[in-house]
Design goal:
- The chain is an alpha+beta fold.
- Helices cover about 40% and strands about 30% of the residues.
- It has nine helices and nine strands.
- A hairpin with a 3-residue loop joins strand 7 and strand 8.
- The longest helix has 26 residues.
- The N terminus is likely disordered.
Length: about 290
């Protein structure tokens, strides 16, 4: 009799599990290949403190890391693809997030350098010191691109931390990062931007009562002509080109940041660049006007 009761209990439990499984499958929302996919970028904070074996702080790191997600219009996160378009969206997410995930390896590398420095300081009778690493970001997103501007600060000894302006521009359509040179289609954009940067830089020097060759490095015009290899980002108003301390002028002069409006850029942009920057409506308005 006990055997029969045990058998009935097992069968009862299996029926219960089967009923639950059927309910879950029935209530699950299927992924439709035709559902519209949108992208969302948010800044996530990542902090890590690395200590030595005796508990001393070697490195303190704090990063604002942009994180991209592909979403359905109802807010569900796309996790598995049911179409080529969804596969492309997931690939874009992976490419974007992988670039910024690399920052999470920095604390370990920084701590190793700090550990060597600490050993030297102990042998030399110097005060111990903590290495620091920080990244602050701002994100501009449209339906076609994500533009991230960042300020990186690191301190590994010396009179002051080092500050570096950084930028990342991502084409959501192709799922790839692009350099500003990518916008060049007719050979005129680079020269036009350079001329405007030189004009703005010379105005800054005059405002400070100095000649451009005194306020900036003497080859400032050549440095400005190479603007696409520095920190270039986009926002609602236009394009920003930033030069970190020491790149264009001495440290005391600080970072040098210049802005160009989309109206200034439009005459030198081809159709693909206008589409990427979301400027088609402005083009149509100008044509209508």
């Amino acid at each position: 009799m006990s055997t029969m009761i045990a058998l009935l209990l097992v069968l009862s439990s299996l029926v219960g599990c089967a009923g639950e499984t059927l309910t879950n499958v029935k209530n699950a929302l299927p992924v439709s290949p035709a559902e519209t996919i949108v992208f969302s970028v948010k800044l996530e904070e990542y902090e890590e403190t690395v200590r030595s074996e005796d508990g001393a702080v070697l490195a303190e790191c704090s990063y604002e890391l942009p994180t991209l997600k592909a979403l359905f219009e109802d807010g569900r996160v796309l996790e598995t693809a049911a179409s080529a378009e969804q596969e492309q969206a997931l690939a874009a997410v992976e490419t974007f997030n992988a670039r910024f995930a690399q920052w999470k390896t920095n604390p370990g590398t920084l701590a190793e350098a700090a550990r060597e420095d600490q050993a030297f300081r102990n042998e030399s009778g110097l005060e111990p010191m903590t290495y620091t690493d920080d990244l602050w970001c701002a994100v501009y997103q449209t339906e076609t691109l994500v533009s991230v501007s960042g300020t990186y600060s690191t301190y590994t000894g010396g009179a002051h931390p080092n500050h570096i302006l950084m930028s990342w521009n991502f084409d959501l359509g192709s799922g790839t990062f692009f350099d500003p040179d990518f916008l060049e289609e007719d050979g005129k954009l680079k020269g036009a931007v350079t001329a405007e940067l030189v004009r703005q830089a010379e105005a800054v020097a005059l405002e400070n009562g100095m000649a451009p060759e005194e306020y900036f490095w003497t080859d400032y015009a050549d440095i400005l002509a190479d603007w696409s290899n520095y920190a270039v980002s986009f926002d609602e108003e236009g394009m920003t080109v930033g030069f970190s301390p020491y790149e264009l002028a001495c440290y005391a002069a600080g970072s040098q940041v210049f802005h160009l409006t989309y109206q200034e850029l439009l005459p030198y942009l081809g159709s693909h660049s206008r589409a990427l920057l979301g400027l088609e409506e402005q083009v149509l308005e100008e044509a209508a006007g």
